[in-house]
Amino acid sequence: MSHILIVEDEAIIRTALRKLLERHRYKISEAGSVREATTKYRLADMDLIISDLRLPGAPGTDLLKLAGDVPVLIMTSYASLRSAVDSMRMGAADYIAKPFDHDEMLATVRRVIGKAEQNRAAGAAAADSKAEGRAISGMIGDSPVMRDLYARIHKVAPTDATVLVHGETGTGKELVARAIHEESKRNGKPLISVNCAAIPETLIEAELFGHEKGAFTGAQTAREGLIAAADGGTLFLDEIGELPLEAQARLLRVLQEGEVRPIGAIESRKVNVRLVAATHRNLRQLAAEHKFREDLYYRINVVQMTLPPLRERGKDVLAIAENLLEKFCAKVSRSMLRLSPEAIQAITTYTWPGNVRELENAIQRAVILTEDNVEIDHRTLDIDLDLVPIEEADPERRPRTSLRADPREDLSLEDYFARFVLEHQETMSETELAKKLGVSRKCLWERRQKLGIPRKKAKRLAEA
Question: How far apart are CA 1 and CA 79, in angstroms?
């Protein structure tokens, strides 16, 4: 049981946080100030300290010097970029804004404690742990494509090379950026993540590069940009293909000259930032169409990494589903559920166009909606079966070849599909088969062709 010290002067917030964490089996101690925390408790005995930034007497950041190797999570009602980044520069493990979301708080606590435990466990064996292909914390999967990705991350992370990550929406590109940062020499400095598609064009330059007071209407004070905030650390630009051309020109200067000039400023400031960029678009094609700067493309295209979509990761999809199932069962404090054979069929044959994010939503929904059963039924997953229109029912059937494999065996997705089709096609129509498998009839037909399981006229129709 992890021991957490909460340092918060507002009793209501302190009590609410204590109850939340105690419900999830953490041992909790409390203090109303830095002074009380240091006099009542031995900080080195804690696994985590959660402290408000603004406290009576000394600020919460004073605990960063006193806590030693114990990670400190800073809470602040003043969720400005400056205060958050300053806290992390001083050594905070992470920060969270008040009022905090319960799920976000629990996820952050687990991540910070988990990372601290990993760092302690690594010890002298850290050098030996660089073996190629080993798994990366937070990333699940042992398929060949993922092992290749892990090996590439281990090779590239210790360098300062710019990395361009390709991958569909929902594949976890930010996890790659975090892994690169944490295995680099910059892991003691901030990782600043920016979604270029989420910031309006009119604000993106001010957000990235900062601005001087009076640089434009509404700029009442000077503000440090996100690039400067990442100085010494890593800047992750997600969906870099959405960056306006003007901002691309400024970013190119940062990469080439190692300096940033805020909007309205006369002088530039030197910065030392490693860039990890991500996109789901074809930047080479965008450059050919003059929608992305060609010189910037060649500047960021130093090392490429590709995150495979979930449909190409074989048995990883089931491992991820079971990990998510355990996570969400713990989150709602219920006994562990298991997936029914039909649910396994649906999960392993569905194409998951939304990738891991869509799978996560399906598992969370199933955990919430499953009542007294110990198994999650495929219907509760509520996977969208209408991505391709389903044609009219076809009563044609063919003789069955029985396969008696257990659906929980270590089979590939193709094995699951072939077994299920051969076992049930005598008693089910094509529409029923498609629904059970969680695919459209068109997808069912395509997979039959790929696996060499063509449909034939059923005997009873031929005899008629």
Answer: 30
Burial bucket for residue 66 (CB in 10 Å: 0-12, 13-18, 19+): middle
Q: How far apart are alpha carbons 349 and 411 in whole angstroms?
A: 12
| DSSP class per residue in 292-316 | S-HHHHHHH-SEEEEEPPGGGSTTH
- Name the more confident of 244 and 266: 244
Helix (H) or strand (E) holding 414: helix 413-424
- Residue 126 confidence (pLDDT) above 60: no
Residue 383: name the closest of 339, 425, 414, 351 by CA: 351
pLDDT category, 454, cuts 50, 70, 90?
low
Token pair of 369 as six digits: 């909606």
Q: What is the pLDDT of residues 33-44, one digit of tens each?
A: 999 999 999 898
Q: Do 284 and 382 touch, CB atoms closer than 8 A?
A: no
SS3 of residue 163 by DSSP? strand
Which letter does DSSP use for residue 337 in this model? P
Classify burial at 43, counting beta carbons within 10 Å of its beta carbon; exposed 0-12, middle 13-18, buried 19 or more. Answer: middle
Q: Is the pLDDT of residue 54 over 80?
A: yes
Cα separation, 223 vs 213, whole angstroms: 8
Structure tokens at 114: 């988990």
Is 233 within 8 Å of 274 (Cβ atoms)? yes
**What distance, in Å, lies between the first and last C-alpha atoms of the chain?**
70
Distance, in Å, from the CA atom of 255 to the CA atom of 243, rounded to the nearest integer, reads 15
Q: Is residue 304 predicted with pLDDT exceeding 90?
A: yes
Helix count and strand count (H, E) for the chain: 20, 14
Instruction: Note the pTM of the prediction, 2 decimals.
Output: 0.56
Separation CA 182–CA 193 (nearest Å): 14
Which range has the worst mean pLDDT, 16-20, 232-236, 250-254, 331-335?
Answer: 331-335
- On whether the CB atoms of residues 222 and 211 are closer than 8 A, the answer is yes
CA dihedral 82, 83, 89, 90 (to 10 degrees): 150
Cα–Cα distance, 107 to 365 (Å, whole number): 18
Using CA atoms, how far apart are residues 80 and 208, in angstroms rounded to an integer? Answer: 15
Q: What is the pLDDT of residues 322-351, one digit of tens each?
A: 999 999 998 888 888 888 877 887 888 788
Give the DSSP letter string of 42-57.
-GGG-SEEEEESS-SS
Q: Are 376 and 322 in contact (CB under 8 A)?
A: no
Q: Give 1's DSSP letter.
A: -
| pLDDT band at residue 462 using 50, 70 and 90 as cut-offs | very low
Give the separation between CA 22 and CA 338, rounded to whole angstroms.
Answer: 26
Q: Distance between CA atoms of 304 and 176, rounded to whole angstroms?
A: 12
Beta strands in 46-178 (DSSP E): 48-52, 72-76, 94-97, 163-167
Q: Taking each helix axis from N to C terminus, what angle separates 201-209 and 245-257, rounded to the nearest 10 degrees?
A: 20
